[in-house]
């Protein structure tokens, strides 16, 4: 916020990671829908759906809808803790 002439004015700041393109071609929509269904099935407990969230981010990176980033930086543990949504689908 800036104080100009006694008025506080909000000055927007871009996101830390920058902007990213929307998925206009629905390239990752199936994974997104699976993740949202998981959230619904687990009463919005996102820890139960983390493998699907990781799959969604991987899809976005693979389709160049976001910059490639190490999953540890995105808050995920190493691959041995959550390899994919295969564990989720067994439940």
TrEMBL record:
InterPro entries given in the database record: CHCH, COX19
Coiled-coil blocks: none
Origin: domain of life: Eukaryota
Alphabetical keyword list: Cytoplasm, Disulfide bond
GO biological process: mitochondrial respiratory chain complex IV assembly
GO cellular component, one term: mitochondrial intermembrane space
Record localization: Cytoplasm
Pfam family, one: CHCH
Occurrences of domain CHCH (ranges): 28-61
Record family assignment: Belongs to the COX19 family.
UniProt name for this protein: CHCH domain-containing protein
């Amino acid at each position: 916020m800036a104080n100009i002439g006694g008025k506080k004015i909000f000055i927007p700041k871009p996101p830390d990671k920058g902007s990213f393109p929307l998925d206009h071609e629905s390239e990752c929509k199936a994974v997104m829908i699976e993740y949202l269904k998981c959230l619904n099935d687990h009463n919005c407990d996102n820890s139960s759906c983390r493998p699907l969230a990781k799959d969604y981010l991987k899809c976005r990176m693979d389709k160049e809808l976001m910059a490639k980033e190490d999953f540890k930086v995105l808050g995920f543990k190493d691959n041995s803790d959550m390899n994919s949504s295969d564990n989720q689908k067994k439940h």
